[in-house]
Amino acid sequence: MILHRRSGSTVQGKRMQRFKPGRIWTDDRNRPINAHGGGILYRTGTRTYYWFGEHKNEDGAELRFGEPSSPTEPADGGAHVYSSQDLYAWHDEGLALPVVRDDPAHDLARGCVFERPKVVRSPATGLYVMWFKLFRRGAGYEVCHTGTAVAASPAGPYRYHGKFLAGQSEAGAGDFALFQDDDGRTFHFCSRKPTHEVYAAELQDDCLAPRRPYVRVIAGDNFEAPAVFKRHGKYYMMGSHCTGWEPNPARCAVAEAPLGRWREIGNPCLGEGRERTFDAQVTYVLPVAGRPDAFVFLADRWRPECPAQGRYVWLPIAFEGEQPVVRWINEWDLGWFEGREAEGRRQEAEGRRQEAGGRRQKAGGRGG
Ligand code: GAL
Fold first, then answer.
1. pLDDT at residue 362 above 60?
2. Which of 22, 143, 343, 357 makes a 20 to 30 Å CA pair with 64?
3. Nearest residue (CA) to ligand 1, atom 7
4. Residues 6 or more apart from 147 whose CB is under 8 A from it?
């Protein structure tokens, strides 16, 4: 039998069905996926994942901290989007929101810093809403705006809506997470400048602005790259410390409610490389559709001198009790979760039993 090598994501005629953290990951046109600092939107109806991330220009370089404008080709080209049914093979859907090349006064003028796009669907309007970090062209890294854009279909094109300074800070806020709860309420968690404590607000129904003022949810400063998810009714936030493109130890916090009291529970990474998050920085935690206990830690291995060559580090999250744990794996696939799901269901049932037992004790007046 003659088997043909057809593209980077097919080997000997067979589609690749494995994640290979840190290795080059090509799309359906055999080009390296260009979606850094990304996030995923899942559409239930079409069972399709959309991966939005920073499109980094070939030959571009990141601004150096404190530099007002880049002498070289700017790094950021806007938001790039890919689609997939299985999370392994990605179809290039093109630029969902490109930077603006013909109007230097535009908020998104070429030369702006456009980072960490994330998309949610507003349950009220049915529209897709993209949020992103925006440093205006030539303005340096001091003040970070939060930008929004809107589209009628998930892959776009997105229309720029506007920008604001999040977190009630004159310097705005930087890295962020958008989290949509089971009841449709959507929250913006952001690293508020200049101290980088995490502030959060529930969004309006159209998902274009906060509904009420932001509240501080994590007092520990220098918290960046928040990524929020929910498991067994508890809310978790992965994140990083604040060292620019240089890797640092990841961090994790847990809460009973999105705007409740968050408790930091330490570095979720274990094993060799844990102090540098396996040379990466988290950007999103992906709940795998149809697998209640499967969450993937999505992180970026940045390359500021040649940002388009940055790599992706996707690793499965295990739970040891309620503690999320991320270990390095050279290659893996979604089958990794199978044994864990049964264990997760057992833990959840056990939790419910203990809760019910607690309630019975209280009702019986024997509670201490
Ligand atoms: C990181 C942040 C990135 C980028 C970088 C610039 O901490 O997470 O999105 O802004 O700093 O130095």
1. no
2. 22
3. 244
4. 107, 108, 114, 131, 132, 133, 134, 160, 161, 162, 163
